[in-house]
Amino acid sequence: MRVAWPHLFSWFEKGATVVVPSRLLAEITAEQLIQYRLGQGLETWHRSAVYNVDAWLATCWQEVRYKPADVGTLLSSSQEHFLWQNIIEQQHPHLFDAGATARLAMGAANLLAEWRIGGEAESWSDHEDAQQFQRWHKLFRRRCREQGWLARADIWRLLPNWIATGLCSRKLTVFAGFPTLTPALESVTQALGLFAAMEQTEPGCQRERALGVRCEDFDEEVERVARWSRAVFEQDAALSVGVLVPDLQAHLRLVERTFDRVFYPSAGFHSSTADDSVFHVRASPPLREHPLVASALLLLELARPRIGIADAGAILRCPFISGAARERSGRALADVELRRKRDLDVSMRDMEFVSGECPLLAALWLRVERVLSVKMRDRELANWSETFSGLLEAVGWPGDAELTSEEQEITEAWKDALSNLASLSLVSGLVSCGTALDRLRAVLARPGIRRGGWSSPVQILDSSDSAGIVFDQACVTGLSEETWPPQLKSNPLVPLSLQRACHIPGSSPQTARRERERVTEFLFGIARNTVATYSGRLSPMAERFILRSDSFPEWGGSLPRGSFMPQPLDELEDSVAPAYESAEAARGGTAIIKTQSQCPFRAFAEFRLNAKRPEDACFGFDARDRGGFLHKALQYVWNRLETQDRLRSMALQQLQSIVEEAVNQAVKDDQSSPFHELITLTERDRLQELILDWLLEIECARKQPFTVARVEEERRYELSGLKLRLRVDRIDRLKNGNVLLIDYKSGKQSRNKLDCPRPAEPQLWVYAAAVEDEVDGVFFAELKAREMRAVGYSREKHFPGASVTAKGSGWDQFLDSSKSEVERIAAGFVAGHAGVDPIRGACEYCNVKPFCRVNEKLRQEQDTE
């Protein structure tokens, strides 16, 4: 790979400074010069001056800066962007993406400087966005004048005068690869006079039309290109191979994955990031997406007073802090314990409390507290940078494990990012912790570590970067009419009429077409031998460069999945577990019977393997909270009322007082925040109305008098050898001495949940087997607003409505068969029956889905059919 400037080395021999349009061309030129010097047999040499245009402008400013001249401070790109963003946010605090708008404003300011576009033209008043930009631009310029700052656009304006007055010395300077000569650049070359030279890029080294192969989709294109690249590499490893991909950043994951599997199939599905990789990808994910940096940003959340529950759990389990490997299990259990609070956010003290079994982590919390002992008030970004660095040092980031070479580069890039953040103090005032973290994330949006290097034989570049580069062999992808040529984007903050008047490329249909043709011509002139791929219809603009073909040379080896011989799998019948043995009462109570009835495997996983998912945070009170409040309140109410007769005879005002007192005892005051206090009051109001309606509409209307014998009674019972702890919601005693069993429910219920075999809600049948009295009925008390009713079965009619079925003379047999069914279910659990066999609806609220193989069972059933 080399740049397409034939006189490049002669300029270097003359000691010229070479200025190129982009950082990419500067890197390639510098690499080519290194190879040239090594080819001359040299071991040391003076560093040649190769700059991209932004870096060159900065060196010119540095030269003037150290002379007796009144020159302002040059803002870095990050500082300039930050200043634009501050101005825009002050003017429009509710703008959706101020950062992106600031980048557009920076581009517009540079456009004005490079093309000498004035701000007095009438066209500015015809464009609302342009008028807004002018207001921002004036504020930006005023701020820079007041503080003595310079932006890149100012250097274009000042540089010709610096050169003319001798502040910036005249040196032989070659401007290579610039597609157009802007007015600003022309002024600079005129000021340099005979010391300036232009080196133009000439396309057209291709001798024949490229072989173009049609593919089904872009994924196939990338795989065929990767196979072609390996075939060329194996034929001659000394050849430079270029792969041009449209919008490479968007397709980065696909390209890296595919080239990995073609060039390194023995590595399986794990990417290699070695510097000596055969291929170099000129793109990379943002630095903040690397696990090491993402973990650092996560750990900085400790500086906030409240931490989101998901972030807090991730911090506890973070592998990049001290002691993570040694306390892995303990910290995972601490995360589980923390989630039991079910709060949306937690404090660091909450995290400390659950870390009692992790001594190494407890020591870290003490160090973190010392760092955060200073009040987290607004401060400068330089101070926040120091705080963030100290906080990461306190937790031992990046951990105890030895870092790979890539991770070492990442840690250095992180330090550079903190330094960059500190530099923003020049253009920033005092900011909060949250704002500082947002700025740091913006700094970390820059590209991370790239795959391979410029010495790699295969270079993968974006198609738009082809101008000025030459390869021995090249392949161009994505030449369908949907993706090629790429759309040229003009800056929306500068009136289009002004851009056209200045003949800015792409500002008019004519110049846009010429620019697309120029880019396409360079694309196919990048190598003497070029192949191409496309999917769908071939782009008309690329058609004259393409010779359609069915194939081109490709590597024919197997990808990782096809590189290994298939092996037969051992089959193991695991639907029967070892028998359950325990001298103590089983943990779970009637939930064991319910879960075993719904799915034996789920019961085995939850109650014998203790496999449960962590608790989910909830906003306010969830169904479980509300159900607990309901049970407690009704327990207090019936402890006071005791009988139906007393309920009927009580004055409404007295009943309301009893219910209100019961609800206040059940739903305790929560003054931890105004929000919790508000939802507590709301829940009390809702529960009072619900219980009053239930008592007056349902309980008073019951056909037979009753006495509430027991509420929330705990008892022990052995069912088929399974020792259970039971809690019966309520037992009513009838006049005939028999009892009714009632289970409170706040959701929708139906009688078929009690139907055997394998009832979905078998707990009432377990209670019926456990009580010593004669049972005359089992009911769900459905306390649901506007839909209150009793649901169940009984010997006689006790509640009004069609949701209750009286079995009459068949009740005894129905009750006995239901008891026998729960005994059978309990016996199955004790015997170890653990097959994946869910009843309908059982999987909807299952806690062990990642652990279950129900989908395999469904596939087997489909294969059998």
Helix count? 30
Q: What kind of sheet is the major sheet?
A: 8 strands, mixed
- Can you give the helix content as a percent range? 40-55%
- Alpha-carbon distance between the two ends: 59 Å
Shape: elongated
**Overall radius of gyration:** 38 Å
Mean pLDDT: 89
Helix and strand content put the structural class at alpha/beta
List how many beta strands DSSP finds.
22
Regarding quaternary structure, what we see is single chain
Low-confidence stretches: none
Measured by DSSP, the beta-strand proportion falls in 5-15%
How would you describe the overall organization of this protein?
With 865 residues, the chain is an alpha/beta fold. 45% of the residues lie in helices and 13% in strands. The chain is elongated, with a radius of gyration of 38 Å. The chain starts with a strand and ends with a helix.
Keywords:
8-stranded mixed sheet; 45% helix; 6-stranded mixed sheet; alpha/beta; 865 residues; 22 strands
Q: What is the secondary structure topology, with strand pairs?
A:
Blueprint: E1 2-3, H1 8-13, E2 17-20, H2 23-39, E3 50-52, H3 53-65, E4 73-74, H4 77-91, H5 98-115, H6 128-147, E5 149-150, H7 152-165, E6 173-176, H8 183-192, E7 196-199, E8 210-215, H9 218-235, E9 241-245, H10 252-263, E10 279-281, H11 291-299, E11 307-308, H12 309-316, H13 328-339, E12 345-346, H14 348-354, H15 359-371, H16 381-395, H17 405-423, H18 433-443, E13 458-462, E14 469-476, H19 496-501, H20 509-524, E15 527-535, H21 540-543, E16 546-549, H22 590-598, H23 600-607, H24 623-641, H25 644-649, H26 652-666, H27 674-699, E17 706-719, E18 722-734, E19 739-745, H28 763-770, E20 775-782, E21 789-794, E22 804-806, H29 811-831, H30 854-864
Parallel strand pairs: 2-3, 2-6, 4-5, 6-7, 8-15, 8-16, 9-13, 9-14, 10-13, 14-15, 19-20, 21-22
Antiparallel strand pairs: 1-14, 11-12, 17-18, 18-19, 20-21
